[in-house]
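STRUCTURE:
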């Protein structure tokens, strides 16, 4: 059980601690947008070159992929490795922090499946 859940169970009247709000805001800043989660999911399988990522993340434009990769690199989720050869080879891979994001993705999938089941059962 997370600290947040424990806090809620202990005192339903307590305010949400500021550090939790900041942590959620940081997380949303890193993963916000349509493309970041699919990019991270593609990289969970291992290193990828730009073209591989473009093929794995359907309908993303090269310009948008480049922008999202730069943002994920700035936020420490992935690293860009440039190999000095001809032609230049560039690969992207997740950092340790990025690999830990698999747990978040798994939790989101579990929640989504449960939520969909509940909505289908209640018809709302």
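SEQUENCE:
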């Amino acid at each position: 059980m997370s600290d947040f859940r424990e806090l809620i169970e202990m005192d339903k009247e307590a305010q949400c601690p500021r550090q939790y709000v900041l942590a959620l805001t940081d997380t949303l800043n890193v993963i916000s947008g349509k493309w970041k989660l699919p990019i991270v999911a593609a990289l969970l399988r291992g290193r990828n070159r730009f073209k591989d990522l473009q093929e794995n993340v359907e309908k993303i434009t090269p310009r948008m992929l480049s922008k999202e990769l730069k943002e994920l690199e700035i936020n420490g989720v992935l690293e860009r490795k440039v190999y000095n050869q001809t032609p230049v080879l560039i690969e992207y891979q997740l950092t340790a922090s990025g690999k830990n994001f698999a747990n978040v993705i798994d939790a989101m999938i579990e929640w989504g499946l449960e939520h969909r089941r509940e909505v289908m059962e209640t018809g709302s």
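REMARK: The longest helix spans residues 96-122.
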